[in-house]
Design goal:
By secondary structure, the protein is α/β, with parallel strands linked by helices. About 40% of the residues lie in helices and about 15% in strands. It has a single domain, classed as Alpha-Beta Barrel (TIM Barrel), CATH 3.20.20. Strands 1, 2, 3, 10 and 11 form a five-stranded parallel sheet that branches. Strand 4, helix 5 and strand 5 form a beta-alpha-beta unit. The radius of gyration is 17 Å and the shape is globular.
């Protein structure tokens, strides 16, 4: 089983590399990528969870309505992508629920920021998926976190997929590992846990080879049309393995 998710947000990543990208362009890039994702999921009959910032959802309500109409899950990526306060846990949940008439059960923090279990529970979430149980130099060391879903003080925690040797299967790995090797790691992960929880972003499905973004090669590699083709192959591989591709809430329901 593959539990698939996407973080849908205003594309402010170029600001981390010194380019002040206008908000309209941030939204245009994320809209383009999300449209490509929804088309791929529809083609393969796959379902996913979309962790959305309120800012993105309010500026792309048509795409949120589309993903909900096609059977996907909407969850919270807090209010803004680059500005966070504890009160945003509740306010983002309430804003998404009010605008789209759904119950928001899941949370993912922007950039996998740490957040207290008590704060997440108090805001009314059923699960949190904001930890990558691996070691990434300069980012985090979460080797002590379990690889599989676990219950922490009444809150379900869904770690991002890592192999039995803690090799991360996140978006950068998918872009930079040979596809055969990524598939191998994915197979070993599913074999050891019976599932893998994957996450990506819409902007990966757009061409990031833009000089002004100042991105390193490993961020730009296999983006745009190359990513669309690569992801199409990944979904086909899941079919070949008879792995269902589902929403995160289905993992909770299986417990």
């Amino acid at each position: 089983m593959i539990y698939l998710s996407f973080d849908i947000e205003e594309f402010d990543m170029p600001k981390e590399y010194g380019f002040d990208i206008p908000f309209e362009r941030q939204m245009a890039i994320s809209r383009e990528g999300l449209t490509a994702i929804l088309d791929l999921l529809k083609k393969h009959g796959a379902k996913a969870t979309f962790f959305s910032t309120v800012v993105f959802a309010q500026n792309a309500p048509d795409l949120i309505e589309r993903l909900l109409g096609e059977g996907h899950e909407l969850a919270s990526h807090t209010y803004y992508h680059s500005d966070f306060a504890i009160e945003h846990l509740l306010s983002s949940k309430e804003a998404l629920e009010s605008q789209f008439g759904v119950t928001i059960e899941g949370l993912r923090m922007p950039r996998m920021l740490e957040v207290a279990v008590s704060d997440v529970k108090q805001a009314g979430y059923l699960y949190n998926s904001s930890v990558n149980p691996t070691f990434l130099p300069g980012r985090y060391n979460k080797l002590h976190v379990p690889r599989a879903i676990f219950l922490e003080d009444g809150l379900w925690q869904i770690p991002a997929a890592v192999s039995p040797w803690r090799i991360p299967l996140f978006w950068l790995s998918f872009h930079n590992f040979p596809l055969w090797y990524y598939k191998h790691l994915l197979s070993r992960t599913v074999g050891s846990l019976s599932y893998a929880a994957l996450y990506f972003h819409p902007w990966e499905f757009t061409d990031l080879h833009q000089k002004e973004f100042n991105f390193p090669f490993y961020v730009m590699r296999n983006t745009g049309e190359a990513m669309i083709a690569r992801f199409d192959k990944l979904l086909s591989f899941a079919k070949e393995k008879n792995w269902k591709v589902e929403r995160y809430k289905k993992l909770i329901e299986s417990k």
